[in-house]
Here is the input.
Amino acid sequence: MLADYHTHCLPWSPDAEAPMRDMAKAALERGITHLCFTNHIENCCQSPLYPDQFPPFHDYGALYAEFQRVRDEFAGRMDVRLGCEIGSPTYLEAEGRAVYAQSVFDFAIGSIHNLRGKRDFYFYQYPDDFSLLKPEIEEYLDENIALASSGMCDVLGHLGYMRRYMARQGKCFSLTAFRDRLEVLFRACVEHGVGIELNCSGLTDALGGFIPEPEVLKLYRRLGGELITCGTDAHAPARAGVGIACAQALLKECGFSYVCLYQAHKPEFIRL
Ligand SMILES: [Zn+2]
Ligand SMILES: [Zn+2]
Here is the structure.
């Protein structure tokens, strides 16, 4: 059993490189048994403050129709589900709740890609002096604490997202430097039934590792965290399914007994 619960496709994610069927085919060829499409919905970051965001998404009917075709084509070979990756739902709460309530989605990743009124961490020029970035990482974790308590997502996406882009600029840090805040965050996750994801995207990037790092997974587990998904965050067939077997092995090493699938926003626990 190999579950990739974070993937993107054209035309629903503008930064993807291939349509849903091609992504599903590539995932199946890599041995994925459970696949979930989680395209970007950036409806909560639509203002002049966020000039780089993708346009708002409203075409749920067309997305679901394509999903049904792909799901049915792969039925019996791979379980395909539809989810979404909502960007900062807490920044525009009514819209965040409306997206989360869309009945077409079985699963929702909540992702903080940018601080309020700021650009995506993708666009940052990272300072050599880490102390200059520290307040923004603290703010980022505080936003995740608010998100975990909001009821607007099932798991928190790629905790420590900016590590992927810092590594491209030859810089790094560990989230474990923020242990107090992480403890508050993970206690909020456990209290509200919100999980985290183990994101594989850094494996094939300059980072060369998982997001979040194993020490963070262990802390989450020690604090009672059980809800966890694995995802490649693949935007192209070449990365669909890549690293999921390693991710599931790492979960076991970090003390997890199960990985989660989701149906109607309810977790299903699959033994590792
Ligand atoms: Zn993301
Ligand atoms: Zn993503």
About this structure: Residues 60-74 form the longest helix (15 residues). Residues 146 and 204 are 30 Å apart (CA to CA). The chain is about 30% helix and 20% strand. The chain has a mean pLDDT of 97.
